[in-house]
Design a protein that fits this description.
The chain contains nine helices and eleven strands. With about 220 residues, it is α/β, with parallel strands linked by helices. The strands form two sheets. It has a six-stranded mixed β-sheet. A five-stranded mixed β-sheet has the order 8-7-9-6-10. The two termini are about 35 Å apart. The chain binds 1-O-pyrophosphono-5-O-phosphono-alpha-D-ribofuranose.
Length: about 220
């Protein structure tokens, strides 16, 4: 099959990240009308004319689809890229979805962090938490994996602190918690499959250049 006849497939993280990505792609002439229907439960969409395919997956699965080549390109948060640690190329910071990965907790937990106490850390991101406490801070901690509403951890006595995403800070404020340490800034990134980056280098380079021109 001639390369120009092959679909270039995008895996997008369902939700706001996917919507913002589609708005961005629209600005460079890559449209997908049927994906705009908010009530649709469809997961895969095609632009026949431009030979693009888009599918929506759970955020943490985006790097998996890209590593195995089920998608050539993925758009996902840098938190997910760090946590999943897949063999993909990160080619571009898309500049949106900006937030921070932080250690958060009640004010009184500051002491525990300062004195390198053996503490409990709840997180949806156990790998990021482990990397930060073990390799950066050289502090031995007990990491407890949760799947969401992580702020509950310190409130109900499951953990001393949490490692979580902070965007506006309102979830923390409304639950009497605060940022204790900042781990790193986060934003949406474009990732590419390691074979696609060679086989489809022209189309991918063109896409990156067009996006860079409007960002
Ligand atoms: C994320 C994150 C925080 C919150 C931060 O949760 O885990 O709880 O958003 O945003 P804020 O600083 O603007 O309040 P999400 O809404 O994705 O749900 P989850 O708790 O199920 O992960």
């Amino acid at each position: 099959m001639d390369s120009k006849d092959r679909y270039l497939t995008f895996a997008l993280a369902k939700g706001r990240l996917a919507r913002t990505t589609l708005e961005l792609l629209e600005k460079i002439g890559i449209t997908c009308e049927e994906m705009k229907d908010k009530d649709s439960r469809k997961l895969i969409f095609v632009n026949e004319e431009l030979k693009f395919k888009f599918f929506l997956s759970k955020g943490p699965d985006v790097p998996t689809y890209v590593e195995y080549g089920a998608a050539d390109i993925g758009v996902v948060g840098s938190d997910t890229i760090m946590e999943e640690n897949r063999r993909v190329y990160e080619v571009m910071d898309l500049g949106f979805g900006k937030c921070r990965m932080c250690v958060c907790g009640p004010q009184k937990a500051r002491e525990l962090l300062m004195h390198h106490e053996m503490i409990r850390v709840a997180s949806k991101y156990p790998n990021i938490a482990k990397e930060y406490f073990y390799n950066k801070k050289h502090q031995t901690v007990d990491i407890i994996k949760l799947n969401g509403s992580v702020e509950l951890g310190p409130i109900v006595g499951l953990s001393d602190v949490i490692v979580d995403i902070v965007e506006t800070g309102s979830t923390l404020r409304e639950n009497g918690l605060e940022v204790l340490e900042e781990i790193c800034p986060l934003s949406a990134r474009m990732i590419v499959n390691r074979v696609s980056i060679q086989m489809e280098s022209e189309r991918i380079k063109k896409l990156i250049n067009e996006l860079k021109a409007i960002l």
